[in-house]
């Protein structure tokens, strides 16, 4: 009995030794540092909102003092042209903007055409403007490209002025809804293609008549004043949400929790031009306006699942200096917070 007991004890001890030798040390989970999807979705939204802003200029009959018309013609590029055609016959109210490899005032190269059709609006006297509460337009795109990215409106991009009729600008702000479904194709790598499907509400924060941006229903909105100084421009806020896929066909949702802000007074890119005898100040401010403020709840299938919940937790995109309450900064930077850790990023222009 003693021998048997001893042998059994030795076997048990050996088994415990083997088990203890095979035990793995605790390993900290890998940090989730995937934030390219946040940059991609922000860029997709930039492209979509710029289509609306283009419509907002032409539908206010501001056809020259705007970001989307051509800037200085690059050397050797004689095809840098743009034409805007207006149709005002009954039942056919629209603007057709046609680009031919055009480098615009915001520094972006555009090609193809965009049609802003407001025939479904409540037309009075053969004319209707973007600022009027009854304005509705549908935007369609034909081989439209921005810096090589091919943007297609799967269904017409619908822009609706939702401001109450006979509103008082002293206490009511102009608002619009932007409802669309877009595919955005990369010029070189199809794996980087994106989609944008959603609805946003845009508000002209400084609608009040004292702002020098909106005067009255008879005067076009002064979105931005092109002078050699940064004069007052439109201050816009966006709320709402959209979803789709970013590169590598990763599904995402983008929900605005604190309004995104675009300030048309903010021109981060300053371009030095040639000095002539009539030049007072050679600085020209690029007509490109980034999102300078706002907070977004962002979920992407590209992220790493939590080790405990096995779910991909939403991250926070902050446009500005901090995630909690971004300060207005005239640049194109922000932070992405993932599981409480913030990473500074620069968005695509």
- Structural class of the secondary structure composition? mainly beta
Helix content: 10-25%
Whole-number radius of gyration? 27 Å
Strand content: 35-45%
- What does the main sheet amount to? 13 strands, antiparallel
Query: What is the quaternary state of this protein?
Result: single chain
Per DSSP, the total helix count is: 2
Unreliable stretches: 1-20, 273-282, 322-326
- C-alpha end-to-end distance: 83 Å
Question: How would you state the average pLDDT, rounded?
Answer: 81
Structural shape: globular
Sequence of secondary-structure elements: HHEEEEEEEEEEEEEEE
Number of DSSP-assigned strands: 15
Order of strands, widest sheet: 1-2-3-4-5-6-7-8-9-12-13-14-15
Domains (count): 1
Overview of the structural elements:
The chain has one domain (32-346). It contains two helices and 15 strands. The protein has helices at 2-22, 36-58; strands spanning 81-89, 92-103, 109-117, 136-146, 149-161, 174-185, 194-204, 235-246, 250-263, 270-272, 283-285, 291-300, 315-319, 333-338, 341-346. The longest helix is centred in the first third of the chain and has 23 residues, at 36-58. The protein is mainly β and 349 residues long. It is globular and about 65 Å long.
């Amino acid at each position: 009995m003693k021998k048997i007991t001893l042998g059994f004890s030795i076997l048990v001890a050996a088994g415990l030794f083997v088990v203890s030798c095979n035990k793995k040390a605790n390993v900290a989970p890998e940090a989730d540092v995937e934030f390219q999807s946040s940059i991609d979705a922000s860029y997709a939204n930039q492209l979509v909102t710029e289509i609306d802003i283009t419509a907002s200029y032409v539908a206010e009959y501001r056809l020259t003092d705007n970001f989307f018309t051509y800037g200085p013609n690059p050397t050797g590029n004689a095809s840098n042209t743009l034409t805007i055609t207006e149709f005002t016959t009954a039942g056919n109210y629209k603007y057709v903007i046609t680009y031919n490899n055009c480098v615009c005032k915001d520094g972006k190269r555009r090609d193809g055409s965009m049609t802003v059709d407001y025939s479904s609006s409540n037309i009075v006297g053969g004319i209707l403007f973007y600022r009027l509460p009854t304005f509705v337009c549908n935007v369609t795109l034909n081989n439209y490209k921005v810096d090589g990215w091919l943007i297609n409106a799967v269904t017409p991009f619908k822009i609706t002025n939702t401001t109450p009729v006979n509103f008082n600008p002293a206490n009511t702000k102009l608002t619009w809804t932007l409802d669309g479904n877009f595919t955005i194709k990369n010029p070189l790598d199809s794996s980087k293609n994106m989609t944008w499907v959603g609805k946003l509400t845009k508000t002209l924060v400084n609608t009040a008549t004292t702002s020098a941006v909106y005067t009255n229903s008879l005067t076009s909105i002064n979105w931005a004043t092109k002078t050699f100084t940064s004069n007052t421009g439109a201050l816009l806020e966006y709320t709402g949400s959209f979803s789709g896929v970013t590169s590598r066909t990763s599904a995402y949702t983008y929900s605005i929790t604190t309004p995104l802000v675009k300030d048309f007074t903010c021109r981060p890119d300053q371009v030095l031009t040639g000095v002539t005898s009539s030049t007072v100040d050679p600085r020209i401010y690029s007509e490109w306006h980034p999102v300078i403020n706002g907070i977004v709840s962002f979920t992407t299938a590209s992220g790493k699942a939590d080790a405990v919940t096995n779910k991909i937790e939403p991250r926070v995109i902050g446009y500005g200096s901090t995630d909690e309450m971004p300060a207005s900064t005239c640049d194109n930077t922000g932070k992405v917070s993932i599981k409480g850790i913030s990473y500074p990023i620069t968005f695509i222009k």
